[in-house]
Amino acid sequence: MRACSQVQVMDDDFSSRRESPPPPHVVGVSLCDSAPLLWRVEDLRSVRAQGLVGALLGSLPRTPRQNGRLGRPLLLLPEEERLLRERQTAAALPARRQDGGGAELVVQVEQQQEEEQQRSYEEQSILALEDRKSALLRAMTSSHSGGPGSGTGTEASDEALRGRLEDLDRSFTFPQSALAVQLSTARAGLSYCPEARAFLQADWPIREQHDRSWDARYQVFRDLRGRGFYLTSAGKFGGDFLVYPGDPLRFHAHFIAICSSLDESVCVLDVLSAARLGSNVKKTVLLCSPGTDGRILYTSLQWSGMV
Questions:
Q1: Is the pTM of this model over 0.90?
Q2: Which strands make up the sheet holding 55-59, listed edge to edge?
Q3: Is the pLDDT of residue 110 over 60?
Q4: Cβ neighbours for 179, distance < 8 A, ≥ 6 positions apart
Q5: 182 to each of 129, 161, 185, 208, 236, how far by Cα in Å?
Q6: Residues labelled as active-site residues
């Protein structure tokens, strides 16, 4: 009986250790002014797994002249960035690290680029000199094949070309402006977004807005995301958020969320225009207002025609 109880305790301990959730993945946010951007592929996968959509801004490396399909970076909504911050699953790389490691990294990258550029310049100088010599040799060969009537003029021209060929090694200079620089198009070199976890620090220089409309938007966003909905920006539909029942790649939006506080006055014409717009795009308009008890009050609007 005692042996059975020990086995049961060991099984319970093993199951508790096996079911312990893994530590959350910390995404690295690169700040461009006040816009939070995600560059790393694993970060994009992590936020997508958390139900945060964002908006892709960059062009694809192999097809940079089209805008039908976009790529990295991913621009987060302010509400998405704040939700990640509350979950402690994101960290921003500060512009200047206190220990000076960031400045040293920049200096090393600049030195490496200068060395590679100088090496490329020397190689291109050698190739340009060989190409100039080949052109002179071709000119000498063509002068020899001019026929029997070439005479003394051909020998003089050959002698002049030989002199130019000898002087070419001493006087040839390859201009710096003619240097060909290779641009990375097949793969993006994000050297300014290091992959090492140690470079990511919890530093958030984004200045938050403390007005009531901003707080109402965030409370509505957090509540709808907690209910399992996916949200994107609804600026082109006259609202705050487009609300999807699932991933936006698989579903159309069902609702247009308009956020406002309870004591905020709303014009009747604005309500009618929002309801009619929602009916035209086959979506239901939601008036969302945070309550005093922390709950969100939702009012649906549907356009049924003129009375």
A1: no
A2: 55-59, 70-75, 35-38, 27-32, 90-92
A3: yes
A4: 117, 120, 121, 124
A5: 20, 34, 9, 41, 40
A6: 244, 252, 283
